[in-house]
Design goal:
Layout lengths: L2 H10 L3 H8 L4 H10 L7
Helix pairs in contact: 1-3
Amino acid sequence: MGDEHLLLALTARPGVPFEVLADHGVTYAAVERVLWGGGEVRAG
């Protein structure tokens, strides 16, 4: 497992890390898209 799995875990469950990341536009779907879909994420 790489570090990407840690980031996915932080965006998958409610809690402080989830809320901080979500406040900056980082969601589970966005992380997945960037890691495996070749998409781009812009911070909100």
